Amino acid sequence: MTPESGTPLLSVQGLTIGLRRPGGRSVAIVEDVSFDVDPGQRLGIVGESGSGKSLTLRAVAGLLPRGVEVLSGRVEFGGRDLLTMPAKGRRALMGPQIAMIFQEPMTALNPVMRVGDQIAEGPRRHLGMSAKEAGELAVSMMARTGIPDPARRAKAYPHELSGGLRQRIMIAMAVSCGPRLLLCDEPTTALDVTVQLQVLKLLEKLCDDTGASLVFVTHDLAVVNQTCSELAVMYAGHIVEAGRVKDTFRQPRHPYTRGLLESAPDFDRPERELIPIPGFPPNVADRPAGCPFAPRCGYVQDHCTEAVPPLEQVLPGRLAACYESDRLVEVLA
Amino acid sequence: MTGARVAAPTTATPMLRVSALTKSYSRGTSLLSRFGSGGPSTLKALDGVDLELRQGEILALVGESGSGKSTLAKILVGSTTATSGEVSYRGAEPTTRRDRESSRRVQMVFQDPYSSLNPRLPVGRMLAELLLLHKIVPRREVRAESIRLLNLVGLEEDVLGAYPSQFSGGQRQRLAIARAIAVRPDVLIADEPVSALDVSVQATILDLFTSLRAELGLSILFVAHNLAVVQHLSDRVAVMYLGRIVELADTAEIFARPRHPYTRALIDSIPRMRETSVNDAFELDGEPPSPYDVPAGCRFHPRCALASEICFATDPPLLQIGRQTGAPHESACLKADELATIPLPDPAQELP
Amino acid sequence: MTTAVVRASRAMRRPVRSRALKPWYRNGTLVAGLVIVGLLVLVALLAPLLTPYDPIAQDLEHALASPSGAHWLGTDKYGRDVLTRLMYGARIDLRVGFLAVLIPFVVGSVLGALAGYFGGWFDTVVMRVVDVFFAFPFYVLVIVLVFVLGAGESSIYLAIATVSWVSYAKILRGELLVAKKQDWVVAARLGGMSHGRILLRHIAPNVLSQALIYAMSDIVMDIMAIVTLGYLGLGIAPPTAEWGSMILDGQEFITTQWQQATIPGLAVVVTSLGLSFLGDGLSDLLTPERRR
């Protein structure tokens, strides 16, 4: 994220994702998204439903749903463009280099396969381990993700485990080949708050231990604050603000970021009044000309509706896509 | 539960009161399931719950999945029946059979606004049907009353002919609230009403609950897992764990001085907007135990950092503990006093 | 407080027009189905006006004539005009097809809906009976029943009704099992409504569309059954014009007068196509979520 970074591990440049309609016309859902993730860095991508945050992550993982495709842009991992790479080469990266953790582990795990075998599958295929070695690795991975009695649990099927344990299984599966990049799509949304904390701490510890980078997609600002150092806020398919989490939370420079912070209840400031953002996000099909947030924005000026504001540096280490960003200098109470 | 419970100092009759409420489910009755596992086959969703909802208050019910909070909500609206115990309404014994009048008084707002509205029923017809069925207004005033209800929830006349699919999640939740208040209930049971909504919309729905309470004098039971939302909205908080209420106090009191280690763990688990670290002493290990197999003694002891011998043997009742501060505060913990000496982490410390 | 909420809502209202539903006439499949089925019905109704010939009267002098200006599709072995018999045949086949669906649609839907909604012993009984019927192949059961009851239109209705109600019962039961768990059904109960009212006014409009869509393909199936029965000599008694018996009569001349067996076959195909389009179109129309 930071402009002065050296060689990024993951570099997304001008990524546009959309539906290609018959007749050559295409509808962009995610438009011109660019960000870098350095080795060991933790980036949180925040946005509401329909903002394109999950699609962006899925494009990086090569898991876009049928009918949705990358229309333009580059996704470079370790200097190689994943989008132009042959499918076979890309598959070889998924697991040992890049791994993904999903929101609902029940649908991401194979229901008729013992969880230990599912964890062992990756190391067997990618690291050339024998069945026995991989099985032992699976049990040690499960122990490392804090699963009690891992040797016994390895023989269980997904439906026999609780939601929290299943999420740990998926994490164990994701990190079993020692990836350099972990992609997380709302991994704690389906969990109880006490279990969420355990899972977040686990992810944090695994990244600390292995030096892996993290891209964490969520709608929960507080979870990003707990997990990530860097932040990208998405709205209607665009990154509208990016910077360090702490700085951005204290002094947002895009009205949407500010709106999100002011509308979410903050446990440490119970007296603060919640200020909702008026209006709705635009439909994908008819986004307004100019800034997509303009119809809901309290800072809107005439020129906001003429052209989409570019994502520019407004402070050292902070990018915002807002013509009126200089008026948002207040520090939030 | 036990008779040792000290009544809260309230003069008014509570809107709703439940006493010694239990609800058990048996695990399947087929031959196969009986042979399948040798484990206990009865699930105790509720295991002796006493609670009252006061007139005009917003009472939050919090707890993990499996704590029994949704079961309690279902019993209160009458969509399921308790195994034992009783529910009284304004001090009166409940009628054994649910009639139209008793169902009118307690209404519900559901979690998922996408499945809680009939997709084939236009808004106007949905409201009109209820208004006529319960004879809330004469037929010629139905339209005016419908518009009044829509205005109350922040919608306008022009949505009367629209179908649910034409609305966003937040608007659907407004419609669901309009439907609930159409029959002029006294009590609203809201089961996680904002957890399916986007953050920027949540605030408008929370404000709506506050304004309805003020305008219509509704008593609201708010079932939730998001403690930041609970803290913002509710007057009192009841914390549930494995089918019991383990702590009950005013919102400010319970969050400032939690006196049950489970409440404390819940608070310490909340992802914070300011701090980076939380108090590790109260991070819970493991998962909530299965309600098929409730631990002996204090049901929380396997996950409790303060548990000692006495906790393994004694099942503590919910007792008044707030005498020294004067604030009503009930906790079902033998170590409530010891817990009071462990300070909460101070969020201000983290600020530069 | 209220005024603040209301003011917010003015700014917040999503323009309803942008999510408006597509009108039915913009649905190509539905329109195609309506046109095909409409034309067929029209031809069947107006058959006496469209052709100067009698579909039954024999004219052995002109038997097996090739297509000509007088007989566009030629004549059969009794000298009857094939086009005329085709048009009159539509009357029988369409009528039996539509009518044969009515009774099983009503009986099956009601039984399935009650079984799904209330469950319990009633559900068990209904579903065991359904299983018994499902265990037999459709045609075997229909042919046996018609054989026992004797050929003729009323036997066909009875045989098809006996066999095909089970499909509607299964569909409606499945729909009800899903629907009754929906929060809006729970909400209707909490609104103090009776089970009957909830079933008829709330659930029925949501679940009947599936049965209706199935009914369209069921009509096709029934027409095929009549044609098959006609072909086996168990259907409508000759000399009444009917597509199945026309195929049967025409097949012995397939090498010299191919159109005699082929054209009625094509008529069956076109009818099936029209009804399938209609079913597809209806399913879009009756599912508001899919009409945007």
Question: Can you describe this structure?
Answer:
The complex is a heterotrimer of chains A (333), B (352) and C (292). Chain A has 333 residues and is α/β, with parallel strands linked by helices. Helix content of chain A is 31%, strand content 23%. In chain A, β1 and β2 form a beta hairpin. The longest helix of chain A is centred in the middle third of the chain and has 18 residues. The two termini of chain A are 26 Å apart. Chain B is of the alpha/beta class. Chain B is built from twelve helices and eleven strands. Chain C has 292 residues and is mostly helical. Helix content of chain C is 71%, strand content 0%. Chain C is built from ten helices and no strands. Chain C starts with a helix and ends in a 7-residue tail after the last helix. The chains are: A alpha/beta (333), B alpha/beta (352), C mainly alpha (292). Chains in contact: A-B, A-C, B-C. At the A-C interface, loops of A face α1 of C.
Can you summarize the main beta sheet of chain A? 8 strands, mixed
Specify Rg of chain B, calculated over alpha carbons. Answer: 22 Å
How much is the radius of gyration of chain A in Å?
A: 21 Å
Helix content of chain B: 25-40%
What structural class should be given to the helix and strand makeup of chain A?
Answer: alpha/beta
Rough outline of chain B:
globular
Structural class of chain B: alpha/beta
Low-pLDDT stretches of chain B are 1-10, 30-36, 348-352
Total count of strands of chain B = 11
- C-alpha end-to-end distance of chain B: 49 Å
Main sheet characteristics of chain B = 8 strands, mixed
Q: Into which percent range does the helicity of residues of chain A fall?
A: 25-40%
Calculate the terminal CA-CA distance of chain A, rounded to whole Å: 26 Å
Shape type of chain A: globular
Helical stretch count of chain B?
A: 12
**Beta-strand level of the residues of chain B, as a percent range?**
15-25%
